[in-house]
Structures are given as C-alpha cells and as structure tokens.
Write a structure and sequence with these properties.
The chain crosses the membrane at residues 21-42, 66-87, 108-128, 148-169, 176-197, 203-225, 331-349, 369-391, 403-423, 429-448, 460-480, 500-520. With 544 residues, this protein is mostly helical. The protein has helices spanning 2-16, 22-51, 55-63, 65-74, 77-93, 95-122, 124-132, 140-172, 177-201, 204-228, 241-274, 276-313, 317-344, 346-354, 361-375, 378-393, 398-421, 427-451, 457-488, 495-519, 523-535, 539-542.
Length: 544
C-alpha cells in the first residue's frame, strides 16, 4: 500500500510540476503524446470498425476542415507563441494585471470567434457545397449531412477556445504535462460516444463525441489553471498595451496558421474529387504520420520555446545558437529512425491501426502507400516546428510566415496538378505535402542561419550524418527479419500474428538503432540515458 501511495504522489507531482530543461520537458510531453496517440489509434480503429472506408466517414473527416480553420484564425498555435512572452513578463511585474490581461484577450477572442461561428453555422450549406464538396460526386443528401456535421463541430471549437488559453497559461508556468494530456481526454470523449451511440446515431455519434471531448479537454486544464490563480472576468481592455502586443505578435502567425489550414479544405476537396473513401485514406495516413512529429517534434518544440527565450533574454547569442543546434540534433535523432521504421512497417501499421473488417484491403494498401510518401518528410515537418520557434524567440514572426506561405503555395499547386491534371491517386497529395515541407524546413534553416550570423555547419552536419547512417543500418536490420518472419514464422492473416510480427520487428529495430548510435558515438544517446537516470530519482529529487 505504501508503494502505491508513493507512486501516486510521484505521478501527481510529475503531472503538475515544472520542467526546466528541454529534454526533460520534452520527455514528459512525449510520454503523454504517446498515450494520446494510442487513444487516437483506438478512436480510428473504432471509426474504421463501424464505418469502414465508407463515404459517410469521408464526409465526417471533411466536415472538420472549416471549424478547425475558424479556430486557427482566432487562436490555435499562434496564441502560445504570442501570449507566453508577454504574459510571463507581465506576471513578473504585476500578477493581477497579468490575469486581467488574460481575461481581456480571452473575451476579445470569444467575440471574434462568435462572429465567425455564426457565419459558418448559417452558411454551412453553401460552404459544404461550394468549397468542400465542389466538383465531387457527393449527392445533395450527403452534402446536407456534411453541413450538419460542420455545425455540430463548431460547438467543439467554441470550447477549445478556452482550452487554447489554458494551454498557453500552463506553458507560461512551464507546466507542459497537463496541456499534453488534454488531447487524451478529447479522444476519450469521441471513443465514449462511438461505443454508446454509433449504432443508433451513425456518423453523428463521433461528431457529438468531439463536443464532449472538447469539454473534457478544457476541464482537465481549468482545474490546474484555477489553482495557479486564474479567475475569468468580463473585461475588454483592448487599449491595454499588453493586449495589443499579443495581437500584434499573433497576426503574422495567425495568417500563417490560416494559410496552412487552408490546405485542409483544398486537400479534402481534391481527395473527394477522386472519391469520398479517398478522404478516409488520406486522413488515416495523415494521423499515423503525425505520430513522430507530435511525440518528438512538437514536444521538443513546445519545451524549447521558453528555454530558448531565456537564453536569448540573457543576450548570449552563442549559447542561443548552440542550444538551437542541439535541439535540432535531438529532433533528428528521434524522428529520422522513426520515419525509417514507419516506411518499412507501413503496411503492418495500417492493418493494426485501421484494418477492421469493414476497411477494405484496397483501402489498406492505398493507405500504406500514402503513408510511405508522408514518411519522407517527417524530419522536415518536425524541424519546421523548431526553426519557426527560433524566429519567434527573436521576435520575428514575418520570416516564417513568408516561408510558410511559399511552401503552402507549392503544396497547393502540386496537389492540384497531381490530382486534377495528371489524375494520380490520393497518395500524390502526401507526396505534394512532403515536397512542400522539405522546402519549408530548408528555407527556414538557411534564413535563420543568415539572421544569426551563420551556424557552424561542420559541427552541425557531422552528427546528422552519423544519425543518418545509424538510421539507414536500422532500416536494413528491420527489413530482413520482417520479410523472413512474415514468410516463415508468423501467420499475418490473423491479428495476433500481425501484432507479434510488428512488435518483434520493432523491438529489433529499437535495439539496432541504440547499438548503431552507440557504435557511431552519437551524443544524443548519452543525453537520453542521462534523462532516464534523472527520471529514476526519488520524487523529492526528480520534481523539485
């Protein structure tokens, strides 16, 4: 009993405590993102189990594009980058004024969102017909279904406005775990509604599950934010200098986020142009490929922002550059082998995550094919999150905005050419996205290097080359046993055999990569072991 109490005490402290180094904070976030990914896969497995690759599921996925775009226009990823530095500085000077500023920004954002939400709710039929489903083969009845689902999902975005603010507040206090855990609760809400209401209410069940999940997403963060001292007040201090500065910083980032989000309805339209099930394939492949980006790129990026900001605040440019390069190396160390593993295991991964009885074999193969084209840009997608934050720390939001828009234009043009003119399959959208992501990361890196007076490319490239060789050898070590055991050992027509094969090969790949990283003396491996040792310390030491 004593051991259980100690475990709970340690877990409670870890859940609400501060994280002070990039790797320790990223590790905490990554673990929770991993759990969130598991819940996401359970959600997708249930969706494919109930609806397969049906047009209804394709419509469900399509319906979320406009509501998500609406949230991005108001807050989403732009909020934390603008809010955290202003709020942190204000909080150090005057806590009461900082909380007042928070209420004002939240209330103004709610008013702006309400205007957009009302427009979407009343114009849903037009948006569904003229934007999302334009030139598709959807019947009028299914377009009406698309519009109705869109209206329901707007309610979820309203709740997520509050959640976005709570996330930014918690990250300002270097509490990363609870915001990372919130998406777990979001998926729990969808899963509950799928299990309880999928049969009587069909595709509307997961839509209402999104509303329920968003409430859980908000509540779990509100509990901690309330303890930190936040009390929501009906204030609209739009003349406040802090409020104006936040929105001034948000505008370029919001434009970039909105432009990025505009790709979603465009890609959905292109997928629906091929067929409604193609949108299911594209969505499932996208969900799988975002796993390493979220677990490593997003977690390290979120953890790095306040720590990089502190280094820059101390006017130590050399330390800032060194910390940024180390952060990039850490991302490459984790994501590059993950992309190799995903590419080689793409078919087993798709079969395990969405390969329910109603999900056809043709859809499974095409999902794996699409996933393969996504995997070539996983490192680039992750590095964009780090490099953009490097610019934000320098109070430069315009450069990543311009580069982001250039890459989005490339994505859009290639997607349209591939699908509408060359008549390629849905996999070509993943290829277009990968090309745009690689362009984005490359241009961000060279632009940031130029702005910082140049990076030490010799010290930068050498670790990347080592990680590349280790990942390549890991791929070989994966591929050979995968083919051998698939042919001679396991019956992969059964779920248990497929799961055993995937698990066995993944373990082989994991230890192979550790061995090759040790053989090439990759520094990041030592940092990982050091972090693991710190995590084993007693709670009184680990979380102080």
């Amino acid at each position: 009993m004593l051991m259980v109490m100690r475990f709970l005490k340690r877990g409670s402290k870890a859940f609400t405590s501060q994280q002070h180094t990039i790797l320790s904070a990223a590790a905490a976030i990554a673990i929770i993102y991993g759990l969130s990914a598991v819940m996401g896969f359970i959600r997708n497995r249930l969706l494919s189990g109930y609806f397969g690759d049906s047009p209804e599921l394709g419509i469900y996925f399509a319906a979320d594009d406009i509501p998500s775009l609406t949230l991005s226009l108001i807050v989403s990823g732009s909020l934390s980058a603008a809010f955290i530095p202003v709020f942190t500085k204000q909080f150090k000077q005057n806590e009461k004024e900082a909380w007042s500023l928070t209420s004002s920004v939240l209330n103004i954002s709610l008013v702006l969102f309400a205007v957009l939400a009302i427009s979407v709710i009343f114009g849903a039929n037009i948006l569904a017909r003229e934007i999302i489903a334009r030139d598709s083969s959807l019947t009028p009845e299914r377009i009406i279904m698309l519009a109705n689902l869109m209206r329901i999902m707007m309610l979820a975005q309203l709740v997520l406005i509050f959640s976005s603010f709570f996330t930014s507040i918690l990250q300002s206090f270097k509490r990363f775990v609870v915001p990372a855990f919130a998406p777990v609760m979001y998926n729990v809400g969808i899963i509950i509604f799928l299990l309880l209401f999928a049969k009587p209410f069909g595709i509307y069940a997961p839509a209402w599950g999104m509303v329920f999940g968003s409430i859980l997403h908000m509540l779990i963060q509100y509990i901690v934010v309330r303890k930190l001292g936040f009390i929501h007040k009906l204030k609209f201090e739009y003349k406040n200098l802090g409020v104006r500065k936040i929105y001034k910083l948000m505008i370029p980032r919001t434009i970039g986020q909105a432009a990025q989000k505009l790709l979603d309805p465009l890609y959905t339209n292109l997928a629906l142009f091929i067929s409604a099930p193609s949108n299911v394939i594209l969505t499932f492949a996208t969900d799988i490929q975002t796993l390493p980006v979220r677990i490593f790129g997003m977690s390290i990026g979120q953890a790095a922002l306040p720590i990089l900001a502190n280094a820059y605040k101390d006017d130590d440019e050399s330390k800032f550059k060194q910390l940024l390069i180390k952060t990039i190396h850490q991302v490459v160390f984790f994501v590059l082998p993950a992309s190799v593993i995903i590419f080689i295991l793409r078919v087993p991964l798709v079969r395990l995550t969405v390969g329910a009885s109603k999900y056809s074999w043709e859809a499974t193969v095409m999902t794996a094919y699409t996933l393969g084209f996504y995997s070539i840009s996983l490192v680039a997608q992750s590095l964009v999150l780090i490099l953009a934050r490097g610019f934000y720390v320098l109070h430069n939001t315009k450069t990543p905005l311009k580069i982001g828009i250039y890459s989005i234009i490339i994505n859009a043009i290639l997607g349209i050419i591939f699908v509408r003119y060359l008549h390629l399959g849905v996999w070509s959208l993943a290829l277009a996205y990968s090309i745009g992501s690689i362009f984005n990361a490359g241009l961000l890196f060279f632009s940031l290097s130029k702005k910082m007076g140049g990076f030490d490319f010799t010290n930068f490239i050498a670790p990347v080359n080592k990680i590349g060789f280790a990942s390549l050898l890991t791929g070989v070590a994966l591929y050979i046993p995968l083919k051998a055991m698939d042919a001679l050992v396991f019956d992969t027509t059964r779920t248990l055999g497929l799961l055993t094969l995937t698990g066995t090969v993944s373990v082989i790949g994991f230890f192979s990569y550790i061995f090759f990283a040790w053989m090439f003396k990759i520094e990041e491996l030592g940092l990982v072991f050091s972090s693991l040792k710190k995590m084993k310390k007693p709670a009184s030491e680990s979380f102080n």
